[in-house]
Amino acid sequence: MRAKSIWFTGLVTVTVSLVTGCYGERHLVGTNSDPGGNASAGGKGGSAGSTTAVGGSGGRGGSGGSGVATGGGASAASGSGAAVSTGGAAGAVAVRSLPSGARNAVTAVSRLLWQSAPDASLLEMADSGALSTTEDLRQLSFRMMLDARAQTGVGDFYRWWLDLDQVASLAAGGQTKDATLFPQFNAALASSMASETQTFGTYVTLDGDGLLATLLSAPFTFVNQALAEVYKLDGITGPALRRVALDPSERVGLLTQPGLLALNSHAAVTSPVLRGYFWYRKLLCRPPLEEPPGIPPLDFMTQPLTMRQRLVQHDSMPFCSGCHSLLDPIGLALEHFDPIGQFRATDQGLPIDTAGQYANEAGGEEYFADVPQLAGDLSSVFSRACMERQWMEYAVGRSLTPQDQPALVEVDASFEASGNLRDLIAALTTTDLFLTHTPVCTPGADQTCNDAPTLSSPLGHCTEGQRCACTVPSVLNPDTGRCK
Fold first, then answer.
1. In this structure, what DSSP letter does residue 288 have?
2. C-alpha–C-alpha distance, residues 39 and 286, integer Å
3. CA distance 53 to 147
């Protein structure tokens, strides 16, 4: 059978959501731990006056209560849990004066990374004249990422980007898995799945090497006792998440994490279409697709068929093949994972074929045999450009328009050379788009959203140009400009 193609063209995006944090125990390492590193090494950054460290990130930050070095080069406190780059290449972007002043700049970055108002040390720096150019702000952003508080904003990005609130609520409201096939699936497991992904993304971004390639291809994750059953790992007890090594021939990075696989599956069977569509939007920033009317159901005949064999029925229909040729290759690459993300060797007792192909930048075809190979291929220019867009939309709280393209070009000048997510984040904080945008949720009066107290857009914010109100009983946090 000829493998299907993924065609990479265009960059648009859609996103959503909210999840409970996995904070406090996220970097514990126990039995079956990954020998690649103890994520809990080092102590809490900062000293008296610092807010509570989020997630036990190792020794991040410096002195003075804020954990942010205010003079010269940045340096993490001794005992740092990871060597975090603090001065990536600025690329070809010209250094310029801050468009909205130093106080507004530190406020914007503090809200993004720490989800709080700037502390006294940041305001003092802004008022002292030490922060006057975009390069000064870029270096400050690196130093702020060394502080444990950065795990709040970065963790929230992964919660928002990957719909982790939906993962956490999979067992609620009847949206569960088949109880006969998956008796272990419950609310606690769903919550752990969401926490795993948020913890993994935050760790790679702030404590690990920061590479997009690692986010997609890392042979490790964070599990607790409930998740260990899904991963079929022995010797892990308790609710605390700990880093464990995985078999890189089976699982790598975000694509094979159980929560995202379970979110995009049915109660009793997988869905390559849902799984392919999820990553089509999240990693490739492709526009939403509309399902044509009158599609007949897949034929679940009495004889055993693999999911790939069932999907051939739709692919043979002219009005279906256009979309399926885009979505199915990614989804079928994930067929080794059942509806709750457990690895399986066969489907209906038959061998699983995960091979596929996609169009490369030159217009030729690249083939992959399995999901580890696909994950490595996805850390290409396509996913890099999409990550820039996802982070920028998260930072400004709205969908981007063609007029915002110059900001993405600026970010790409820094992100392209390194592939490091910390370079991406620091670069976006220096763009005029980020520094001059009006927060969608503004403290004060006139907190309405489409004349109703709800957040209505796919991004979880009001439509551009409107104020927002928080859904009762939530209240607006004046420090962050977001609902609590």
1. P
2. 34
3. 8
The Cα–Cα gap between 33 and 41 comes to 14
Domain spans, the chain: 445-484
Q: Tell me if 74 sits within 8 A of 143, measured CB to CB.
A: yes
Name every residue whose Cβ is closer than 8 Å to that of residue 449 and which is 6 or more positions away in sequence.
455, 456, 462, 463, 466, 467, 468, 469
Pair of tokens at residue 223: 């599990």
What is the DSSP secondary-structure string of 200-211? HHHIIIIIS--B
* Helix orientation angle between 318-333 and 307-315, rounded to the nearest 10 degrees: 160
Q: How far apart are CA 68 and CA 139, in angstroms?
A: 11
Query: Strands 5-6 and 356-359, how do they pair?
Result: parallel
Q: Could you tell me the mean pLDDT of each successive run of 10 residues in the chain, 484 residues long?
A: 39 29 26 39 30 30 35 32 44 82 92 88 95 96 97 93 92 82 95 97 98 96 97 96 96 96 93 87 76 59 62 58 62 91 90 78 76 85 89 87 93 93 97 80 38 38 41 49 50
**Residue located via tokens 């970097």:** 27
The DSSP symbol for 28 reads B
Q: How far apart, in whole angstroms, are the C-alpha atoms of residue 108 and residue 312?
A: 50
Q: Please report which helix (H) or strand (E) contains residue 351, including its range.
A: strand 350-351
Residues 237 and 225: beta-carbon distance below 8 Å: yes
State how far the alpha carbon of 442 is from the alpha carbons of 36, 390, 478, 479, in Å.
Answer: 43, 22, 8, 10
Is the C-alpha dihedral spanning 140, 126, 411, 148 positive or negative?
positive
**Other beta carbons less than 10 A from residue 287's beta carbon:** 12
Separation in Å, CA 254 to CA 36, 127, 353, 371 = 18, 42, 21, 11
Answer whether 256's CB lies under 8 Å from 373's CB. no
- Say how far apart CA 7 and CA 176 lie, in whole Å: 33
Start-to-end Cα distance in the chain:
52
* Phi, psi angles (nearest 5°) of residue 353: -100, 115
DSSP string, 361-430: TTS-EEEESSHHHHHHHHTTHHHHHHHHHHHHHHHHTS---GGGHHHHHHHHHHHHHH-BHHHHHHHHTT
CB 432 within 8 A of CB 396: no
CB distance 272 to 331 below 8 Å: yes
Tell me, what amino acid is at 363?
G
DSSP letters spanning 55-114: S--SS---STTT----SSS--PPTT-SS--------TTPPP-B-TT-HHHHHHHHHHHHT
Q: How far apart are CA 334 and CA 336, in angstroms?
A: 5
396 CB-side CA count, 13 A: 26
